[in-house]
Amino acid sequence: MKKTALVTGISRGIGNAIARQLVTDGYFVIGTYKSSQKEAESLKNEVKEIELYQVDFSDRQQTLDFVKGLKDRKLDALVNNAGIIEFEAFDKVSYDTWDQIFEVNLNTPFILSHGLRKNFNEGSTIVNIASTDGMTGAFVSMSYSASKAALINLTKSLGNVFGKNGIRVVAIAPGWVGSGMDSPAIKEAMENNPLGRNAETKEIANAVSFVLSPKASFINGQTIVVDGGYTNVDPILKKEAEATE
Predict the structure, then answer these.
(1) Does residue 144 carry a catalytic annotation?
(2) Among 35, 53, 34, 149, which Cα is nearest to 102's?
């Protein structure tokens, strides 16, 4: 029988690649999008095995209604991919923006995981798409970094409570990825990566595919960093090394 995966934010970038990969892996995908209806429908028309829902996860009621609408659906995987980022100078930070980012990036993964807890088949897996930004301090994207740091911790807690039911929870933390969430610093990020490039969305999707597979059957509550070694590099030490060449 075909397995079913719920993947949030599938219209573009990482979510789009994840949806494609899971269909290739034999899943039927329940996918969400916020406003990119054209892109989402194009994906559905191309890979077929997708059911689409438009949900604005910054609106708590829409999230709760979405969960309620899935009350009779059995799931084998949940991929919490939908996320938002805003860049704000510290003196101009908006509390509303802070709240909105936490609602989408942290609260929604918790609500979906909790609200659908009885929908998961034994052996299911929840994957939270975190970020290496959650492992370091930010300057103009504090809300994003803080929300991803909290998501990494939430992954540990969910891994604890779901484990007794044979359900694993794992986070994937991408570094710089060639997607719509890249900033103008993308070129410098590539230069500071030991592999000399940023990730392709397909590579993040491959990591998700692995985590959902039996090959990852004893990985639970952990965060897998997929950044090509970017977080291993201190830019100052790199410049010092280059100066000696």
Answers:
(1) yes
(2) 149
